[in-house]
Structure formats: structure tokens, C-alpha cells
């Protein structure tokens, strides 16, 4: 027996004429009910307003109970207490819901819904008229009977599956919920039109990443999530161990005071003494304050000694751990990427990185996805060109691959996101300014006070970067040649011995999305830098081997994939563009 293959709703309603060419064809579709209304049969032909019409022999309240599942549940609750109103409405509810149901369903393949026409003679309407109900239906495509949003509709003659919901417990029963409200339901929120659009954009971008690098002769190599090498302070990584000890996390206290608390108090007391001296206060007040400060310093010293004792007691012997050494989740796959680049020539990696994040949860997550690329016989210029071409290719992919989703999100959330995307795609390369030029330009700004002072030699704050892209250039820019102190130790030192060959691509609204570096290929120089920043050289012995044996100039870059999605969709919170965001005190599901 022949059976129909389920058609995606996108293939039916995604055409310019709304699917009119499918009229008369038989299709099998499935999806979830997004909205509905019910009409009595005798009024279907004459009512063209598309609004709910109650049967003439029912009162308004009775009609509502037939049509709104949530109210039906409330009626049941009322009836349990013997409420006479509840008893009356319960009797009404026992009547079969008769009429024609117009369901709008979506299967996640596109923004647009498909309108379904279901007769109560074919299937009980009370089973399908609840938001979130899943259905699998077969029928014939017809021209919509009433003028309005929908060009076509599916007249159902077979109901193959119904997955009911409990309207009281189902969190998406309301038609419009805020992004904040649905964050607590990460397992359901993809059923909303908004989040579904974001996930389709992520899907297109993921494919576009592989397409770009494959077409440019890069090899895809997966880098380890678990690593023993950390290019940053190991305290900023998630450690992996089976040697769990609650005492590792205890804070040393004296009379309920922690070391962190007393250190903060010492700062305040020192500031107070300075104020007293400046105000020519009497000697007794200054003496009392100084004695108070002395006592605080003595207490801090006592706490520090206690913590050192604790560290000796709870010091972890990693040789007895699973890997036989200290291990953690990868913060940056770039170091490992170099080893394969120096064998395959040009490679890329697409995967997650992990780092405990305490602040700016709207911009950073504990688990973020990044794209890393590395090329040999390449310098900084090559990496900048490749990164810019990649950004333009990815931006173009969503304009051609999911224009309806971008249009929907720009209409609903940020009507300027399309302009920002076009700024990426505009002809000509991104403007390039050196770090020094960027600092000089910011120092000349007089009509915009910055919260953080602009100084050469310090990291540009998010506010500084946003001003460069949003106000001064009004498009994506590349800032390059940073001071060596603000970039990783493996960045190649320039001839001035002050700056390194590194760059950032800064996008309007979101800030830095791409970071690129020409790696230091000189063994003596990188060994010196490792010592200079205070890292353990033995930890990087394998990495130094790449310089000892067949060293070559190489450069690469990293794209923060999640922040790129933020930029393209216009969202202001990174938690809304990631399927299951992980932040401090929040790792649902």
C-alpha cells in the first residue's frame, strides 16, 4: 500500500504565491498547533472576518468553555468544589464540540504557518484545539475560503496522530511571551516562532561555515575539549577531576569574616585615613583610624596564614586523578590547532570553549561556540583578509538562505539589523586602524564621556570598541597591532618590541566578534614570552616542539559564533540565541 511522504510546511507555503500551485494536491503534514478558532458549520460560508463565532444556541460563557482548553480545565476545578456555575458549565462541556476548526500549525521548517480545516464529524475538536497540540494530518490543498492572511488551506480527511497538551501546565499556552519568560523553559522555547527563527539561522550559518572553509581548501579537524594546556591563568578554567573534596571550596573564616571581606575593608579604611589627613582632622581621630587599620591588617595576615595551611592540607595529588595530571575544559583550541596546521597547511575547527563567567551574562556564556582557522606560510595580512571574507560570506548566507526569518526578526525586535548586515556586505574592505590610531581617535572625543579612561597600553573596553564601530566608522572595522600586554604570549612580537601582530574585527552593536593573531614562530622569542607572563614552560614543551622542528610563519583567527548570531539577528542578550545557555547558577536541562 502506497503511503504519502510527510511534506514540510516550508515546501508548501514558502513560495511567492503562498502555495497556490499546490491547490488540488494531496499532502501529509505534521506540526504543532499555534492558534485556532472554531466556527459553527452553518456560518462558515457567510462569515469572512476570521474571528471566533459561537453557536447560536449557546450562551457566550458556554461557547468560550467549548473553545478555550484552559477555561475547560478551570471549569473542571470549579466543579470539583461543587460550585453551581462549574456544574452548569461542566454539563455544557460534556457536549461534543461541533463545527469547523481552523488550526494554524507549524512544523519548524519556516516562519509561516499552514491553515488546517478540520470538521468535527471527522475528529473531536476538543482534542486538537489547544496551543501546543501535535498533529499528523492528511488531506487536500484548497483555495482559502475567506480572504485574509492565508492563500491556501488544507482540508483534512484523515487524522493520523494527535499529541495532546495540558493547557494549565504547558508554559506556552499564552500566544505572546517575553524572551525572559521563556528562558526558564529551554526545552520548550524552540516551539516559539522567535526562537525557531534564530535556530534556523544558526543552522544555515553552521552549514555556511563549513562551506566557506571547504571551498577555500581548508581541512576540518576537531580539537580536544579536554586539555592539560592552558594559555591563560588556570584558575579561569573549568577543572576536571574525580578527586572531589568539599574542603577545596571552603573559605577560611575568623569570627565569620572571610579574607576577601577583610581585604575590602582595608581598602575602605585606608581611603578613610587619607580623607581625614586631607581635611586636617584632629590627631586623635587619625590615630584611632590608623589603629583600626592596623588591626584589620593583622587579621588579614592571620587569615592568609590559615588559608596557606588549608592549601597544604587539601592539595590535590593529580597523579592519582583520572588523567594522571591536572586537566580542564578547553578555553582556547588555538594552540592545538597550530600542530595540525603545521602538517595540513590550512585547517579549521568548529566547537565549544568553556570558561567561568562572573559578569556580563548577557554577552558571555560559560559554554560558547567558536570557529578557529589557521594557515601556514601566512602573516597577519593573510589572516585579516580571510577573516573578513569569511564574515561577509556568512552574512550573505543568511540573506539568501533564510530571508523570511531575518525579515521576521527585524520586524519584531530590531529594525536596524538589516542595515548592519548590508554594512558588512558593502563593497570594499573594512576600515583598518592601528591600536595606536584608535586610542588617539578616542582621546579626541569630547562630546561623549567614557566610563573608562582611554590610555595606551590597556585593553579597549566594550564601550570604546562600540564607539569606534557605531559612531566613528558606522560599520565593521579592524583594529590591529595591539600592545603585547593585552594579547596572548604566543602573539608575534613586532619590530618595535612593544606591539604584537594581532587584530580584532569589531562589529556595530555587539563589539568584537573576531580575534586574529600571527603566531610567534621564533623559539627563543616565545620561550622568553612564556617566562615573562609567568606560565610554566614544561606545560608548553610540546608546543615549543613545533618551533624546534620545522618552524614556519603561521596566522589564524577565531570567530565567536554565538556573538555573530547576536549581531545578525539584532538580539541584545546572548542567552536568547543559544539552544541551552550555560551561565553561573543556571544550567537547566
UniProtKB/TrEMBL annotation:
Gene Ontology molecular-function annotations: asparagine-tRNA ligase activity; ATP binding
Ranges in a coiled coil: 259-316
EC top class, as a word: ligase
Keywords from the named record: Aminoacyl-tRNA synthetase, ATP-binding, Coiled coil, Ligase, Nucleotide-binding, Protein biosynthesis
One Pfam family from the record: tRNA-synt_2
EC number, as in UniProt: 6.1.1.22
GO cellular component: mitochondrion
Domain of life: Eukaryota
Residue ranges of every copy of the Aminoacyl-tRNA synthetase class II (D/K/N) domain listed in the record: 320-584
InterPro entries named in the record: Aa-tRNA-synt_II, aa-tRNA-synth_II/BPL/LPL, Asn-tRNA-ligase
Gene Ontology BP terms: asparaginyl-tRNA aminoacylation
Similarity comment: family membership: Belongs to the class-II aminoacyl-tRNA synthetase family.
Entry protein name: asparagine--tRNA ligase
Organism: Rhynchospora pubera
Amino acid at each position: 500500500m502506497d503511503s504519502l511522504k510527510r511534506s514540510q510546511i516550508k515546501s508548501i507555503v514558502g513560495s511567492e504565491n503562498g502555495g497556490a500551485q499546490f491547490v488540488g494536491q494531496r499532502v501529509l503534514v505534521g506540526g504543532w498547533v499555534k492558534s485556532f478558532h472554531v466556527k459553527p458549520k452553518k456560518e462558515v460560508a457567510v462569515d469572512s472576518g476570521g474571528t471566533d463565532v459561537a453557536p447560536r444556541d449557546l450562551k457566550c460563557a458556554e461557547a468560550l468553555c467549548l473553545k478555550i482548553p484552559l477555561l475547560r480545565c478551570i471549569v473542571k476545578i470549579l466543579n470539583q468544589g461543587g460550585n453551581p456555575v462549574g456544574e452548569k458549565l461542566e454539563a455544557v462541556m460534556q457536549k461534543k464540540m461541533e463545527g469547523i476548526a481552523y488550526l494554524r500549525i507549524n512544523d519548524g521548517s519556516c516562519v509561516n504557518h499552514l491553515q488546517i480545516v478540520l470538521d468535527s464529524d471527522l475528529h473531536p475538536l476538543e482534542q486538537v484545539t489547544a496551543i501546543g497540540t501535535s498533529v499528523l494530518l492528511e488531506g487536500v490543498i484548497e483555495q482559502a475560503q475567506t480572504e485574509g492572511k492565508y492563500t491556501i488551506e488544507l482540508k483534512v480527511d484523515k487524522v493520523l496522530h494527535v499529541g495532546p497538551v495540558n493547557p494549565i501546565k504547558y508554559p506556552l499556552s499564552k500566544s505572546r511571551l517575553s524572551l525572559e519568560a521563556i528562558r526558564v523553559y529551554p526545552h520548550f522555547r524552540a516551539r516559539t516562532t522567535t526562537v525557531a527563527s534564530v535556530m534556523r539561522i544558526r543552522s544555515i550559518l553552521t552549514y555556511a561555515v563549513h562551506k566557506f572553509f571547504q571551498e577555500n581548501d581548508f581541512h576540518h579537524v576537531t580539537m580536544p575539549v579536554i586539555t592539560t594546556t592552558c594559555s591563560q591563568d588556570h584558575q579561569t578554567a573549568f577543572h576536571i577531576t574525580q578527586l572531589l573534596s568539599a574542603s577545596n571550596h571552603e573559605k577560611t573564616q575568623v569570627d565569620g569574616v572571610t579574607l576577601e571581606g577583610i581585604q575590602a575593608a582595608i581598602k575602605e579604611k585606608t581611603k578613610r585615613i587619607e580623607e581625614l589627613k586631607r581635611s586636617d582632622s584632629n590627631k586623635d581621630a587619625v590615630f584611632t583610624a590608623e589603629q583600626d587599620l592596623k588591626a584589620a591588617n593583622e587579621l588579614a595576615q592571620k587569615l592568609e596564614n590559615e588559608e596557606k595551611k588549608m592549601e597544604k592540607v587539601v592539595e590535590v595529588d593529580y597523579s592519582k586523578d583520572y588523567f594522571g595530571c591536572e586537566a580542564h575544559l578547553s578555553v582556547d583550541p588555538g594552540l592545538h590547532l597550530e600542530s595540525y596546521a603545521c602538517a595540513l597547511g590550512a585547517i579549521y575547527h568548529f566547537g565549544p570553549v568553556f570558561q567561568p563567567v562572573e559578569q556580563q551574562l548577557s554577552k558571555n556564556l560559560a559554554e560558547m561556540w567558536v570557529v578557529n582557522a589557521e594557515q601556514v606560510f601566512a602573516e597577519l595580512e593573510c589572516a585579516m583578509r580571510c577573516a573578513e571574507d569569511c564574515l561577509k560570506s556568512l552574512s550573505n548566507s543568511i540573506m539568501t538562505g533564510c530571508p523570511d526569518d531575518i525579515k521576521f526578526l527585524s520586524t519584531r525586535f530590531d529594525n536596524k539589523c538589516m542595515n548592519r548586515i548590508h554594512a558588512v556586505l558593502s563593497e570594499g574592505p573594512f576600515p583598518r586602524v592601528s591600536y595606536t590610531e584608535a586610542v588617539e581617535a578616542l582621546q579626541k572625543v569630547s562630546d561623549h564621556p567614557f566610563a573608562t579612561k582611554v590610555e595606551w597600553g590597556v585593553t579597549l573596553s566594550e564601550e570604546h570598541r562600540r564607539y569606534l564601530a557605531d559612531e566613528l566608522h558606522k560599520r565593521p572595522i579592524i583594529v590591529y597591532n595591539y600592545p603585547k600586554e593585552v594579547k596572548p604570549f604566543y602573539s608575534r612580537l613586532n619590530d618595535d618590541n612593544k606591539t604584537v601582530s594581532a587584530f580584532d574585527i569589531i562589529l556595530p552593536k555587539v563589539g568584537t566578534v573576531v580575534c586574529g593573531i600571527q603566531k610567534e614562530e621564533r623559539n627563543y622569542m616565545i620561550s622568553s614570552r612564556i617566562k615573562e607572563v609567568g606560565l610554566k614552560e614544561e606545560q608548553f614543551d610540546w608546543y615549543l616542539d613545533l618551533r624546534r622542528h620545522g618552524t614556519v610563519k603561521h596566522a589564524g583567527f577565531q570567530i565567536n559564533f554565538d556573538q555573530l548570531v547576536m549581531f545578525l539577528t539584532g538580539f541584545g542578550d546572548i542567552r536568547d540565541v543559544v539552544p541551552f545557555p550555560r551561565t553561573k547558577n543556571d544550567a537547566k536541562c
